[in-house]
Amino acid sequence: MKDKHLIELIDVSKLYGGDVALSHVDLYIKDGEFLTLLGPSGCGKTTMLRLIAGFIMPDEGRIEMDGVDIANTPPYLRRVNTVFQKYALFPHLNVADNIAFGLKLKNVDKETIKQKVDAMLELVNLKGYGSRYVEQLSGGQQQRVAIARALVNEPQVLLLDEPLGALDLKLRKEMQVELKNMQQRLGITFIYVTHDQEEALTMSDTIVVLKDGVIQQIGTPTDIYNEPKNPFVADFIGESNIIPGIMLQDYKVRMNGVVYDCVDKGFGKNTEVDVVVRPEDIDIVPAEGARVFGKAVSVVFMGVHYEVDVDCGGYEWVIQTTDFVERGQVVGISIPPDAIHIMKKTQQTNLFDAVAYPEDGEIELLDHRFACNGLESFETKDDVLVAIAPVDVQLIPPEESGLTGVVRACMFLGTHYEVTIGCGEEDWIAYSPEYMESGEEIGISVAADKIAVSANEAN
User: Fold this and answer.
1) Which CATH superfamily is domain 350-455 in?
2) C-alpha pair distances (Å), 408 with each of 165, 368, 441, 444
3) Does the domain made of 5-231 have the CATH classification 3.90.1150.10?
4) What does the radius of gyration of the chain's CA atoms come to, in whole angstroms?
5) How far, in Å, CA of 193 to CA of 38, rounded?
6) What residue spans of 128-266 are helical by DSSP H?
7) Is the pLDDT of residue 1 over 50?
8) Beta bridge partners of 258
9) Chain Cα centroid distance, residue 293
10) Are strands 189-194 and 34-38 parallel, antiparallel or unpaired?
């Protein structure tokens, strides 16, 4: 792999209407690497792909290829081709003619076309399939034809937008290996979009994790998995136990009421932290003599291991083990120092612009009135800034609240779930003792004495 940057996104932002799809993104993509853009739906990964392809333009920033700004370069002049989840093959053309389509548009001579098409058919393991039609192919074979059609024009960069999403699990895993081998043989840059963490870990040289249009972390699959930068990355990449802790000193952390040795340092004494431990790194041991023990509240056989949930004094640990455990059995848990990863504590506060109505003892927030204390120093219709801690947000049935929203994400943090609720263009963060499904409608309530109000300096 070469070290030079082939593509650079420099302070790139993109908005759709008033919604932010990408926010001030800086990304450098090396020549010849397999880079994966990973994140949940709506995180901005497909938008980034379309910007690189030239299908859309950035609202801010610039995109360079080989050091040249390509903002005004149309898609057909960029040495970039795209493979989509819906393969967009022509049903009236056979496999060879589908692959040759772009070459014919460029008036390439017939002999060269034949040589290039034959080479592509061999590359994608479809030698002898040139005369077949699309309807005669399986889903995996159609995907190979789409890839061959994109590669026959010899792009510097191949963009792949969830290309395996329509395939069944077994075929998807086979195609992951084929794609990686293909990229290594060709030596060109692949930029791959997926929401599938396993796909990203299996295929990539570099993973870029996105959330809400912002890059959360860039790194190798090993770095991303073993050293997540924040709870979102830890939870999104594989399963994680995310437990609140206190860093007592270098190499010492207290969590679940017990002091553990760890391998991290550089945090202040008695600093609140988030602790990440992967389920496969925890050992189940006899309860007798164990420093931490609890009851197995759930035991699920996953094929190659059991997934066991152990309640240890209010902290619930997810453990993967090959040893069978009875539901209800009391077991001990053991965690080696190198399995403990320390992250800076993510301090979440809900901050909103609002309007004060002191004569009513209320603020107007997101077109909804909330009772609020401490408004005596404000005039009617003053713009104010409101701060509400997630722990103070009460989640109630939607029919009981004037303000409702939809659950966008739900992440377990050892003792509770952190829930992200979308209310129009604003998101709320709340804590819940129970898991909530994405898309679930929920009502929001906040006590009057839990709303902190200050003058909105920006206004």
Assistant:
1) Nucleic acid-binding proteins (2.40.50.140)
2) 22, 20, 10, 14
3) no
4) 26
5) 6
6) 139-151, 169-186, 197-203, 221-226, 231-236
7) no
8) 255
9) 33
10) parallel
Contact 312, 283 (CB under 8 A): no
Contact between residue 305 and residue 322 where contact means Cβ atoms under 8 Å apart: yes
* pLDDT category of residue 50 using cuts at 50, 70 and 90: very high
- Answer yes or no: same fold for 5-231 and 240-344: no
Residue 29 has what pLDDT?
A: 96
Residue 193 parent element (H or E): strand 189-194
Q: Mean pLDDT over residues 306-310, rounded?
A: 97
Provide the token pair at 378: 């404000």
Contact 417, 434 (CB under 8 A): yes
Using CB atoms within 10 A of its CB, is residue 422 exposed (0-12), middle (13-18) or buried (19+)?
middle
Residues sharing a CB contact under 8 Å with residue 77, sequence separation 6 or more, in sequence order: none
Q: Which amino acid is at 120?
A: M
Expressed in angstroms, the distance from the first to the final Cα of the chain is 51
Q: Amino acid letter at 187?
A: G
User: What is the pLDDT averaged over residues 7-15?
Assistant: 96
Token digits for 324? 């069978």
Query: Which residues are paired to 333 by β-bridges?
Result: 284, 292
CATH homologous superfamily of 240-344 = Nucleic acid-binding proteins (2.40.50.140)
CA distance 261 to 146: 52
252 pLDDT more than 90 = yes
Alpha helices in 106-138 (DSSP H): 110-123
pLDDT at position 228, please?
93
How far, rounded to the nearest angstrom, does the alpha carbon of residue 411 sit from its chain's CA centroid?
A: 13
Token pair listed for 59: 């609202």
What Å distances lie between residue 32 and 69, 77, 193, CA to CA?
A: 20, 20, 17
For the four alpha carbons of 160, 162, 164 and 169, in that order, the dihedral sign comes to positive
Angle of helix 169-186 versus helix 139-151 axis, rounded to 10: 20
Its sign, for the CA torsion 325, 327, 333, 336, is positive
Of 69, 92, 58, nearest to 7 by C-alpha is 69
H/E run at residue 49: helix 45-53
* Cα 103-183-238 angle, rounded to 5 deg: 130
What is the SS3 string spanning 327-355? CCCEEEEECCHHHCEEEECCCCCEEEEEE
- Alpha-helical regions (H) of 152-227: 169-186, 197-203, 221-226
For residue 365, which of 346, 388, 342 has the smallest C-alpha distance?
A: 388
Q: For the chain, which residues make up each domain, given as ranges?
A: 5-231, 240-344, 350-455
Q: Which pTM does this prediction carry?
A: 0.81
